[in-house]
Amino acid sequence: MLKFFTSNKHTPRWIVLSIDLAASVMSVIFALLLRFNFDLTNKYFDNLWQIIIFVFFIRLIIFLLTHSYAGIIRYTGTKDATRIILVISYTNFIYIAVNYFLFFFVNHKYIMPFSVILIDYFVSIFLLTGFRLFVKALYYEANNLFKEEKRVVILGINEDAITTKRVLTRDPEVKYIVEAFIDTKGGGKKKQLDGIKFYKLSDLETIFKKHNIYELVISDKDISADKKQQVINLCFQYNVNVLTLPDPKDWINGELTYRQIRKINIEDLLEREPIKLDEKQIKKDVLNKIILVTGAAGSIGSEIVFQLTKFRPKKIIAFDQAESPLYDLELELKEKYGFTDFEIIIGDVTNLVRIQKVFEIFHPDTVYHAAAYKHVPMMENNPSEALRVNISGTKIIADLSLLYDVKKFVMISTDKAVNPTNVMGASKRIAEIYIQTLQQQNKTAFVTTRFGNVLGSNGSVIPRFKQQIEEGGPVTVTHPDITRYFMTIPEACQLVLQAGALGHGGEIFIFDMGKSVKIINLAKKMIQLSGLKLGVDINLKITGLRPGEKLYEELLADKENTVPTVHEKIMIAKTRQYSADEVILKTDRLISVLKNHDNFEIVGMMKKIIPEFISKNSVFETLDK
Questions:
Q1: Please, are residues 507 and 523 in contact by the beta-carbon 8 Å criterion?
Q2: Which of 55, 218, 439, 581 gives 446 a disulfide partner, CB atoms 3.0 to 4.6 angstroms apart?
Q3: pLDDT, tens digit (0-9, with 9 covering 90-100), for 356-402
Q4: Which of residues 143, 170, 192 is at a domain's end?
Q5: Which of 165, 416, 550, 569 is catalytic?
Q6: In the 8-state DSSP scheme, what is residue 275?
Q7: How many domains does the chain have?
Q8: Is 416 among the residues known to form the active site?
Q9: Listing from the earlier edge strand, what are the strands of the sheet with 192-193?
């Protein structure tokens, strides 16, 4: 018997049909007995066989026509129950029709009383659905005997928490036992949710000590970042896996499945309180505008494109040199965002003829300039490319914006432009200075946004650590004391759009990056999230600072200070003013030496434009002496 219920084979349809027919016969007999108070002398019992045969064949015909027996019993759900109710309704309607026909056109007799038909209706539904639910329950209980048992705690006491509990308990491979719900806003031991007690957040450690908890699932999307961090740290301490739910809009057909409950990742650990945007202001800045995004296939550029779609621009021009990522961007815009008012254009920002054609054809109202080389060690070894793309490319896009009366130009810069110690940061600082001086012509509003590292962006430390962990290590960190500011890609791009809407021209907007993060601690947490033990399953290796790399990032230069804006996360850097003629002349001279590809000549001229550029861990330190 146990083997039957744990088998993966489905019950043959003819067996289900036979049981349904037997239940139908039992139902009508029971209805007759109940109607006549179990008095077997009643005249209707004299014709019992006629009634049974009549019911049998009517139900058989309807069952065959509707295939009500075709479902897999162990997966019986609301749709199956609804189908049974409809089938019973059809058959009992036929009983009523036959009753009237016999009475008015044959022998003025009913085949069975209407009250019996009504009783049979409810009894049949009960027997047929009850049989299916009974088999389903037996199947899951029998399979639970052989499942691996795992105890879980669910963080939250909302509808999602109940859904999570039911999804876990239906898992076909693991027997999940939900020990408790955790109320992040209060709670008490005497309260229950779906039959499970819920506790206060302060009780979580006690639960971990008392029970062998395997996983904790975060179902409360409104939990504060601080509380989430507290819970995750406690889970790390007791070796409890942490899972989280996808956004409800990503649930399959509006329903959560077990495979969608995912492990928490490092981005979840570093997230801060959600940013409050002035969406009306952004929409006013974007609505019905033609917007050019350079570097549109990159991490930041693509996210800017995606976020722009909800503010209904007239057209988005996605410009990049990367063919395959641009194709992926095109597909995602159409399929995921349902947005079609865009143009995909392949080209290089340093190709004047190509990019000028884009301005001639589309006449953009706003430009988001995200195209740049961003890798510090790569640019330290290739200064001519930093000059060509980050400086000359920016100059071309900015000059064309002036020429074609672009209303607003928003440049994506970096915290590495502050007191630069590397070629990449210096190239971005020179680009900042150049577009600030163009503001003095008062035709286009030139705005700069400056922020730190972006989680998960191309070439960032997070994907690198993930790859090293997957390969078994070692996980490499350049220095035990190195720290960085981090932001998620959506968070950074939201602030870019907000700053762009706030800017009137000439500002360098800096973002509140929160607390700086020690990279070695980041690596250790990622190892823990992977379920590995440092020094046992995987090693950590210190490799030394790379060329141009500094220990601590800055968002403001020493002589700069900030002015607050109407948005609490965005400030304006007060920077020194430069002579436009002098900057343009020096920039042109710098670009003119590009043809020589003499790295020391290029870097030397960069240092003359920005004296605060002092190289670190680099061959160019000799130029500072």
A1: no
A2: 439
A3: 999 999 999 999 999 999 888 899 999 999 999 999 999 999 999 99
A4: 143
A5: 416
A6: P
A7: 3
A8: yes
A9: 192-193, 196-200, 174-183, 148-155, 213-218, 241-244, 262-263
